[in-house]
Amino acid sequence: MNQRVLHHDVAASPDATAQPKADGTIRLTAAQAVVRYLAAQRVETEDGTGTEPLFGGVFAIFGHGNVAGLGEALYQHRHELPTYRAHNEQAMAHSAIAFAKTHFRRRMMAVTTSIGPGATNLVTAAALAHVNRLPVLLLPGDIFVSRAPDPVLQQVEDFHDGGISANDAFKPVSRYFDRIVHPAQLLNALPRAIRVLTDAALCGPVTLALPQDVQATAYDYPARFFEPRVVKCHAPAPVEHELDDALLVLRNAKRPMIVAGGGVLYGRATDALKAFATQHGIPVAETQAGKSALAWDDPLNLGSLGVTGSPGANELAHEADCVLAVGTRLQDFTTGSNTLFAQAQVIGINANAFDGLKHRGCIVQADAKLALDALGSRLEGWQADASWTARAQQHANEWRDIVHKLTHARQRTQEGQSVLPYDADVIGAVQRSGARSATDDIVVCAAGTLPAELHKLWRAGRPGAYHVEYGYSCMGYEIAGGLGAKLARPEREVIVMVGDGSYLMMNSEIATSVMLGAKLIVVVLDNRGYGCINRLQQACGGAPFNNMFDDCVQGAPGAPAIDFAAHARAMGAQAEHVANVQELEAAMQRARAADRTYLICIDTDAARTTDEGGWWWEVAVPEVSPREGVRNARADYEAHMNARGRNNE
């Protein structure tokens, strides 16, 4: 990565002249205090040999409400706390969130915006971070506390409450929210913010709304408040009575399964997971957030689970008598809308009790590593039924063979003509292009068809090699998220795989990646519309409508023929369009050798997906419709609902 990102060729910080007074205080504006405090926070390096900044930097789009206050403060600390300019507020928050996810929540970033649309553009990203339990510090500007200029430009006025601003929209999507109406509040608000951001049970977005007049107001702060501090990430240890309850369930189990969620990665419990599974002969299946917790070729790795799961993982999950859910929210894609674990007693190991109690589980509220170590030490001599373990290993081997065949298929033809590749073909080509370095690649994705195909087919060789945001499944996360991953791991190849729909929704951070020298490889799969939802629409009995370009209302010019390669080149990237999988493999080699962001576009089949695996997912179908297809889909829906009701009795 271009080192200019980290070192700005400017004079020394003028803030160096700010010295404590005789009474041990230092006079700073509220904005200066925020920035100085963030710059002072440290965290241990991964190898434990030193420390590094807790905050990797601040993404900022300046406007009225933050340019004069926070902008000036960030300039003063531009060496210790780099400021990065972005092109879209939501996108820059996605980048900050991806940075934290790539660091397994041990490091993070802040973002700042003006008031009004700059602030509200962050709300979607805040929701994404909240759902995925990922840390990001949001610093939106706010209206004047003085109310002297009222209403100020871009102010959202509430007709019944004069204290409400647009920033109140952050409250339901923040784990901690505070509006700083006096500089002294920061003495309490900032430590609370850091605790939430670094606490495994509380972790999520923190919003500190900063009225622009307060940002500029000075206060005498205790100088010791800004002394460098090594932050320890907090995670709870298991308590004995919860361990006892879990052990009772496990010891009586013959057919146990482990569901590995994101908490395994965030808790750095991957080695503990492998040791526990191996010692007790328990098969493992992975959620979207947990994929890469266990190497793809581990003998006990059944692959993906749930709606996008492998055949063996879902078969065994349906028959398991105990499911050890480690660090997962057990959302509906994982549980097949609560139909998958038909016979299982669920043990929820989670730092967050809210998540650990899902699916009526027996809870062990604890850090994943501490819990697995504690359970393992008390289960000496106990193993799953030998036939169950052997069956799991057979399923795992069979699935690896299927994945290889699907991702190494020959070019298909129909009546002598080549037909378009589908996602599995593209995934195979991308992985083959990095045969020697595939374990170092980080694949990034979020929405559409690709997350399902990647969950099944991507071979993740090391923790963090798989970076798919599927808690919120937010279209537009992909490229911005890739930028955040690259800033976190500049030494690794970051490959963004994105559909044309998500690309069109948010692509401007290609320009940011070029500007920062943070090279990405972006692979665009162009199926000319929202192919995933088009298939779901028809699966629910609906007619193809308003998803694919061909099925939308169009004016005289018709649907656009979009040249994604030309568009990326216009933002400074290198780019090309390829005609088939063979050309894609060659283009991937050029992309790997490039010195800047490189986009490759390939046309793909909008209808075909991987048939193997999968499970039912509840999508409500209209009870009354004039369409026969909808009525048939409703009958199928009711059959599944009735079956779930019987299983839950």
Automatic annotation (TrEMBL):
Q: Which domain of life is it from?
A: Bacteria
- Which EC class is this protein assigned? hydrolase
CDD domains named in the record = TPP_IolD, TPP_PYR_POX_like
Where would I find the Thiamine pyrophosphate enzyme TPP-binding domain in this sequence?
447-600
One GO cellular component term of this record is: acetolactate synthase complex
One of the record's GO molecular function terms: acetolactate synthase activity
Compositionally biased residues, Basic and acidic residues: 1-10
Q: Name one Pfam family in it.
A: TPP_enzyme_C
In short, the EC number is 3.7.1.22
User: Ranges for the Thiamine pyrophosphate enzyme central domain?
Assistant: 244-375
GO terms in the biological process aspect are:
inositol catabolic process; isoleucine biosynthetic process; L-valine biosynthetic process
Q: Which UniProt keywords apply?
A: Hydrolase, Thiamine pyrophosphate
The identity of this protein, by name, is 3D-(3,5/4)-trihydroxycyclohexane-1,2-dione acylhydrolase (Decyclizing)
